[in-house]
Records
---
Amino acid sequence: MPKKASTLEELYEDHYKVMIKIAKGWLGNDYWAEEVVQETFCIAQKQLEKVLTHEKPRAWLMKTLKHKIQESCRIRDQEVRMLVTLDFDVPSEDKAEERLYPSLIAEVRDALPEELWYVLRRHVLEGATHLEIAKELDITVSSSQKRLERAKKRLRKLLGGKK
Amino acid sequence: MKNKTSVRGFLEELSTEQLLDLLWAEYESPEDADEDLVLRIMEVIEERDELMEGLPTTEQGWEDFQKYFNTPDGEDCSPDPTEELPGPVHRRSRPVKRLLTAALIAAMLILLGMAAVQAFGADVFGVIARWTDETFHFTAVTEPELKLEPEPENENISPENEAICLAVQEAMNKCGITSIPIPTWYPKGSELADEIKIFENRINRGFRYSLTNGDNDYIVVIVQHYYGTGVDYARVFEKDSFDVEEYVKDDWEFYIMSNLDSTSVTWSDGQTILKVSSNTSLEIMKNIINSMGDYI
C-alpha cells in the first residue's frame, strides 16, 4: 500500500497529475485547468490536517475540484453578463465579445485605470485565466482577482447598470 | 476482487471523454457520488499519459503554486514598487467605514526592535506612510529614530499560545532578528497552518506564516527586513478605496486598511515592515494590536 501523504507537497505529488488531466478534460483549456487545480490545493492547504487525515484524500480533492470548476464557470458567466448589462439590455446567454458595442468598450476603457482595464479586458473579453494574467504581469493570482473585482465595482458605480 | 476487476476492465474500455462524462455525472446525481467508482475512474484516467500534453508537469505545477498562489492574500510577486503615484500623507485618525464579517482567527504582530536593526549596520530612519485609493506604501525619511529602549520580559503568555510564540521566536532567531514582541492573546483554536517560511533575497530577508482555526478563516503575517536604504524598495500594498486608519499602541503607529474581503495591519520603522492580513473582524485585529508589548 503506498505511503499516505504527510505534507501538502506530498499530496500535490500524489494527486496533481490526475486532477489537472480531469480539469482539462472538463474545461478544455490548459490555463483554466491549472488555475482551478491550484485553487483546489489552496483550499487543501487551509484545511491541510483534515485532508491528510481523511480516509480518501483523493476523493476529497476531487470533490473540491469539481465545486471549484462549477464556481469558476458561474463567476465567468456572471462577469460576462455584468459587462453586457451595464448599459444595454442583452440576453444573458450572449457572449460579451459578440454583443459589446465599440462605444461601450471605449467608455469602459476610459473609466478604468490601465492596470484594471488590462485585467478586465484579458479576463472577461478575451477569456484569459487569472493565472495567465498573473504570469503576464508578474503578480499573484489573488492580485489579479482583486483587480478585476475593483474594476467591476468601479464600473457599477460609474456607469450604472444591473449586477 | 472479481467485481473490481470487471469494473476496472469496463472502465478501461471507455474513451477518455466517456470517463470524464461518467465522472461528472457521478457528481451531478442527486445522491452522493460513489467514491469508490470515482477513484477507479481516476485511476484509469491517471494512466492515460496523452492527456498531459500541453499541461505543466507536477514539478512545474508546484513551482507555479508557490509563486502565484501560495502567497499572502493581495501580495504582489514583483519585488519593486508599482508606478502608482503616492497620495497625500494622512496623519489624522479616521474611522474605517467597512464593516467586516469574520470568524475568529488569531493574528500575530511581530515587531523588530531597533537594537536588532542596528546590529546589522543599518541606519534607522523614520517612515512616512502614503496611500491612494488603490495602493499603500512606506517611504523612509531622513529623521532618525532615537528610541532604543530594552524590551520588557513577558511573564504571562497563556499555555495554549506558547507553542505559536516559540515557533515564531525560533524563526526570528534563524533570521538573526532579536527582541521580538509576541502577542499573548489568540482566539481559541488558533494554530499554525504550516511551517513558518523563512526567506532571503537581494532586497530583504524575513519570514511569513499563516494561522487558521480549521475553517476558511486565516491570518497571514509577514516580516520583511530591508537592506541598504530600507523600505523605499518595499512593495506597494494593494487596497480598496476605503480610508486607511491610523492606530497607535504605546509608541507604535499601525495602519489599518482593507482590500475587499480582507483587512491588513501594517507597521514600519523605516527598515522593517510588518504586515498582518486576515479575513477576520476589525475588532479582532485591534485586540491583537492592543496585546502588543508582551515579549518572550
---
Amino acid sequence: MRAATAICGAGTTGVGRFEARTPISLASGAVSLALADAGLSRGSIDGLIVHIGSPRGADYDEVASQLGLRVRFASQTWSHGRFGATVLQHAAMAVSCGLADYVLCLGAYKNSNLGLIGSKKSWGFEESLRYAGGPHGETPHAGFNGPVAASGFAARRYFHKYGQDPEKLAAIPVTFRQHAMLNPQARQRKPMSVEQYLAAPYIVEPLRLPDCSSVVDGAVALIVTSAERARTSRASPTYILGMQGVHAGPDEFIFGQPGLGVAQESVFDYASSGEGQDVYRMAGLKPADIDLLQIYDAFSPLVLLTLERFGFCKPGEAADYVQHGRIGLGGDLPVNTSGGMLSEGHLNGWSQMMEIVRQLRGEAGERQVAAARTAQWGTALGDSIIFGNEDTL
Amino acid sequence: MSPALSHPVFERDFAVDPGDLLPAVTAENTPFWDGLRDGRLLAQICVSCDAPRFPIAPICPRCGDDTVAWRELSGRGTIFSWVRYHRSYLPEFADLLPYVVALVQLDEGPRMFARLIDPPNDPAIGDAVSLIIERWPGGRHVPAFALTGESR
C-alpha cells in the first residue's frame, strides 16, 4: 500500500465569501484547475468522490452531469467535516482495486449563506433530533445545539482531568493566526496576541470566538491515481504513504478523547499507541519523522486531542506542548501552516490538504517548511493520512 | 412497588412554540417520555449487565443483550462537565441567555445532557444536582437539573 497511490493534480478556488457563486460553480473552478495542474483532460477522470453534498456542496450526480465527467466509480460521504480524508482514502482504495484510474476528489462548499451553524435555520437541524442525540451530541430540548458546545463540554472535562489551565489554549489560535498572516487568501489575517485572545468574548464558555473556525466558501479538487501514472503527470506527485480510518463506537465522542467520559464514553486513563498505529506502520514512519502536521481544527481544543491521539505528546501534555512556538513555522512540528480552519477558514480539511500538496512540492512560499518530505493529516477521531514526495521514497 | 420519587415540576414559559425541539416519540422511547409526564426518570436496563443505559438504544452497546426493561432512576447525579451559552442558537432559549447546559453524571451510571436551572455562579465539576421536570406547552415534559448545594 505504501506509496501505491498519489495525488497527481490539485486545484483550489481559494477561500473567501463568494456571494455570487454556487457550490457547483466553486466545484467547477477547482476541477478545471486540478485538471490543468495534472495535465489531464476531463475524459481521463473515471472516478468521482464528493465529500459533502447539497445544500452546502454539490452532489456527485450534479457534479458528474454538469461538469461532463463520465465515471465508473462514484461515491459521496455524510455531510459532516469528519469525512474529508476518508474521501481520499476511498479514492486510493478504488484505484488500488482497479475500480478507477483517476479519481477526482472534491471538497466544495458554500457555507456563508447557511446561517449560524447550529441554529434551526442552518442545514442539518433535523439531525439534532435523532433521539440518541445529534452528530455532536446535540440535545435541543436541553438548549444544546451547535458543535461548538460539544467541543466545550469535552474541553472543560479535559482540563479538569489533566489539571491544566484552559488559558493555555491561547497558543493555538495565536500561532495559526501568524500562519494565516503569511497566506493572502486566509480569512482572518489581523494580528492576534494572547492578551487579545483572552479578552475575546465567550461564545459557548469555555470557548471564545477565536477558538472557533471561520466560515468560508471555497473548493478544492484533488486527483488521485496510481503512483506509476502520477509520475507521468505534469505535477510532482504527492504520495499516500499510510492511512487509517475514522474511529467510532461508544468510547468515541466526536470532539472528545477515549477515556474522557464525555457523553457515554467510558472513563479510563488514555494511552495512545503512537507509532504503533496503522498510519505509521503503513508509512514506515514515526511521529518524529513528520515534517508538518495538518489538524482538523474546527475548534482549538481539537488540536490538543489530535496531538495526543497520534502520540506527538502524552495524554494531558498537549497544552504545554503547543507553547513557545513549537507548533509554529520554524518550530519542531509546524501545524496548520496556512492558518488552519481557525484562521484560514473551515473548508472541512480540504484547504489543509491543498497546503500539504503545496508544501511537499516546495511551493508554499513564505510558509515553506524547509526540505518538507513528509506531511500528515489527522483528526481527533483518529483518522489520518501521511503523504510524501519523491524525496521520501 | 416502592413509592414514586417526587421531583419538582417547573412550568416553562415560551415566547415561541418549542415543539420542534423535541425528538419524535416512538414505540421504543415512549416509556421515557411517558415516565417524565408521570414525574419519573426512567432508563432502559440491560438485563445481562444489570446496568441502566442512555440514550435509548435497541440493544446494550456493551454486551449486545436485546432484552428491554425499564427502571426508575433517582434523578440524582453530579456535574460531569458544563458549558454556558452566551450566544443564541435556538430562539426558544434566547430569553435565558446566558444559560448553562450540563453533562450530568447520573448516580446509576449513564450521563445526560440537560439544562442546569439557574446556577447562582459557575458550577463546579462534582457539584451534586437533582432532577427537575420541565413541563412544556403541548404536554411534553423534559428533564432538567438544579444544584442541590452539595459537592461530591
